[in-house]
Write a structure and sequence with these properties.
The complex is a heterotrimer of chains A (44), B (171) and C (527). Chain A is 0% helix and 16% strand. Chain A contains no helices and two strands. Chain A is elongated, with a radius of gyration of 15 Å. Chain B is elongated, with a radius of gyration of 27 Å. Chain C is an all-alpha fold and 527 residues long. Chain C is 63% helix and 0% strand. Chain C has 25 helices and no strands. Chain C starts with 6 loop residues before the first helix and ends with a helix. The chains are: A mainly beta (44), B alpha+beta (171), C mainly alpha (527). Chains B and C meet through helix 1 of B and helix 5, helix 6, helix 7, helix 8 and helix 10 of C.
Chain lengths: 44, 171, 527
């Protein structure tokens, strides 16, 4: 009958993109380290 | 037909056809199962190069504390009305870093708006007297970070009346 | 050929010197640039054999340094592993990155021209190492090397702006060359790399989706590797682990890039075994983000009134590829247009979907599944095109004649489908019904058409064995854990609710108490 996919540690109802915090296919820990960010040129 | 994409790289390995039989694949997969990439394998040592390195006592922290990358830390600063100065400090002295990104996010949450021409943050002191599609006009608080020459009044908040904030300079 | 005499020593010294530069406190970019210029002047960066040797030796040095620090514990718990030292790997990765960054452009050669060459050396090195080491092959140094490059190359450094797509495709080609079927020992590292947040999202969003074919190829590579293992539901620990990892990646794609899964569903279904129902459901459940799906269990849902059911879904897969390989595309076109040589053509067609004994041993089925899939969708698409062109004219007259089915249930396409459902054996029928059910997705004219085809075949076949099999195909897709495709739900609900089909009067709905219970629970969950 397959797996209850809600147990794989991914919040499918999240309004944010999942790939930003996707750490690894092997664990449901969110990604470590600086997430992706952009600062506009005018901030430099 | 995807082969057309620079496929020179997929030259098969030593054995013809480059494909192994199923039991070989399973054997290799099971061996690899005991050599999974570890979470640490993906983490690189945090390299921190200060903008203007200076010799400091070794007992001082030499790298940034992890908490400065924790959004909750910046949210707390944003919520604390004495934290705004710290947000401005990070914004003007930590250029192009995740800290600057988080500080800007918190400032926006506190209704500060960045003016690209003046490189300055403005906040409405009251509802604007005039507001069109292109600009708004009224009294604003702005953060004056200029400390130039003998002018000692920088790095504080000031009030400006009759200021026109043109939206094309809104970041 | 062996390396020239002294070459290895020279490379070792150069690497040691690079290490010193990197380790200097406050190492400056200008020092890196200077070193790269020196390398270039020494002729080692020409992209010729010498530079291939150079990078291969550097790789050899850094991998052997890394592996020499390894102690392996026996058994699955890995806490005894002494962490590998990636120092040399990191330094090598940084050298390659610096070579690309500071490569003197005034030579008229693009900064990135060396990248495919370095990656080619890397791929060959890994392939050779895995062939030689077999089960003692260790993927982790290579995983670390690529992680460095993903984080460096795919960073938004101005120097690489605009060249990002070239970098991404070069990496995608390298990963394709290192696919699990070719380097099975690299499979876990490979999946983590191709799904890495510094690679997959960039490839899928860069350059107006031009990266999609690359990532689709990588997913197909993964499915092709897993297919023989997934055929029988008993998965060993390693395969199950890989399978679960794949589900996670698919869920990220389903959530963040549903359109990608939608537009390539056909290619993916071709390489997923029919028994792998949940994974296939994830792909078939994807729907465009701007679409709102009405709840299938809404009473009296008027599907016909949905605007989307007259719109064709975007299909980026090459639907007729298998027909072309089998050289039957033109016959199909001819038959759909003219319907000549009816029975002869249909009889031959049923032969052509069979595999030769050797092929079927390898494929685990007597049938050419991609050909059946291609046939069903291709014929359906042509039927829809033909009939949509004529619908306006006909639909009035047919309605007045009292025929309750929409006009597009007549024609050559139906001949083909009916001959399959009536004349193929159980396995053939199952695969044919699967190909039809794979089109029951989000609201679009394929879903609408194939939903009617399925229901029409159910009511017209008047053979319970066929009606039972149609029900089984729908049911096996509904009893697995979510997600369930929208088109599947509305088709099943229509089947059990619409008195036209007399569903509950069929004996197979009551053939055993648990079957009865099953039907009740599924129909209840469908509202």
């Amino acid at each position: 009958l397959g797996i209850d996919l809600t147990t794989l540690g991914l919040n499918l109802n999240s309004a944010d993109n999942l790939h930003k915090t996707f750490g690894s296919p092997w664990s449901d820990e969110p990604a470590k380290g600086d997430p992706e960010f952009n600062v506009p040129q005018c901030y430099y | 037909d995807l082969g057309a994409i620079g496929d020179g790289l997929s030259t098969p390995p030593a054995n013809p056809g480059g494909v192994h039989d199923q039991s070989y694949n399973l054997q290799m997969l099971e061996a690899a199962f005991y050599k999974l990439p570890q979470p640490k394998d993906s983490e690189r040592a945090k390299s921190y190069t200060p903008r203007h390195p200076a010799v400091t006592p070794p007992s001082y922290p030499q790298v940034q504390a992890p908490i400065v990358n924790n959004p909750a830390f910046w949210e707390r600063l944003g919520a604390d009305n004495y934290g705004t100065d710290t947000l401005f400090f990070a914004f003007y002295y930590q250029q192009n870093t995740y800290q600057q990104f988080l500080a800007a996010k918190e400032l926006k949450k506190q209704s500060w708006r960045y003016h690209r021409k003046y490189n300055t943050w403005f906040q409405r002191h009251e509802e604007p007297k005039v507001a069109t599609d292109d600009f708004e006009q009224g009294t604003y608080v702005y953060f004056d970070f200029h400390i130039a020459n003998d002018e000692q009044h920088g790095w504080c908040q000031r009030i400006k009346t009759d200021f026109t904030f043109e939206y094309n300079y809104l970041e | 050929e062996p390396d020239p005499a002294g070459f290895r020593e020279q490379v070792s010294m150069l690497f040691a010197e690079w290490y010193r530069i990197c380790e200097l406190p406050g190492a400056s970019e200008s020092a890196y640039a200077h070193y790269v210029i020196q390398l270039h002047q020494s002729g080692l960066l020409k992209g010729d054999d010498a530079s291939d040797r150079f990078f291969r030796l550097l790789m050899e040095l850094s991998v052997s340094h890394c592996l020499s620090s390894e102690v392996i514990s026996s058994g699955p718990s890995q806490s005894h592993l002494v962490p590998l030292s990636f120092l040399a790997i990191d330094i090598y990765a940084k050298l390659v990155y610096s070579v690309l960054k500071f490569y003197p452009v005034d030579q008229g050669v693009s900064k990135l021209s060396l990248l495919p060459k370095v990656l080619a050396v890397t791929v060959k090195f890994i392939q050779k190492d895995s062939e030689e080491k077999k089960i003692s092959f260790n993927p982790r140094p290579y995983f670390r090397l690529f992680i460095n490059w993903l984080l460096d190359f795919c960073s938004l450094e101005p120097v690489f702006d605009g060249a990002n797509f070239q970098v991404l495709t070069a990496l995608a080609n390298a990963f394709h060359a290192l696919q699990p079927l070719k380097v099975p020992g690299f499979s876990f590292a490979w999946l983590e790399l191709v799904s890495h947040r510094s690679f997959m999202p960039k490839l899928l969003t860069a350059n107006a989706q031009k990266g999609w074919p690359y990532f689709q190829r990588l997913l197909v590579d993964l499915f092709q590797f897993m297919e023989p293992f997934l055929r029988n539901a008993e998965l060993g620990e390693a395969v199950h682990f890989l399978y679960k990892g794949t589900l996670r990646v698919l869920l990220v794609l389903l959530h963040d890039y549903p359109e990608f899964l939608c537009d390539y569903h056909f290619s993916f279904c071709d390489v997923i075994p029919p028994s792998c129902i949940q994974m296939r459901n994830i792909i078939l459940s994807a729907f465009p983000r701007n679409m709102r799906l009405p709840d299938p269990s809404t009473p009296n849902l008027k599907i016909d009134l949905l605007a989307e059911i007259s719109q064709s879904p975007r299909i980026l897969s090459e639907v007729d590829a298998a027909l072309k390989t089998k050289q039957i595309k033109s016959d199909i076109d001819e038959y759909l247009k003219t319907r000549q040589q009816g029975s002869l053509f249909l009889t031959e067609l049923k032969q052509k979907v069979l595999l030769s004994p050797t092929e079927s041993a390898r494929a685990g089925t007597r049938y050419n599944v991609p050909l059946i899939n291609s046939l069903v969708l291709y014929v359906g698409m042509l039927a829809i095109q033909q009939l949509q062109a004529r619908t306006a004219a006909h639909s009035q007259s047919m309605a007045s004649s009292g025929v309750s089915y929409p006009v597009y249930l007549v024609g050559a396409a139906l001949d083909i489908f009916q001959s399959f459902i009536m004349d193929l054996d159980t396995e053939g029928r199952y695969l044919f019904l699967n190909a039809v059910a794979n089109q029951l997705r989000y609201p679009n004219n394929h879903t609408h058409y194939f939903s009617f085809i399925l229901l029409y075949l159910f009511s017209e076949s008047n053979q319970e064995v066929i009606q039972e099999q149609i029900t089984r195909v729908l049911l096996e897709r509904l009893i697995v854990n979510r997600p369930h495709p929208w088109g599947l739900l509305i088709t099943f609900i229509e089947l059990i609710k619409n008195p036209r089909y007399n569903f509950w009067s069929r004996s197979f709905t009551r053939c055993a108490p648990e079957i009865e219970k099953l039907f009740e629970s599924v129909s209840r969950s469908c509202g």
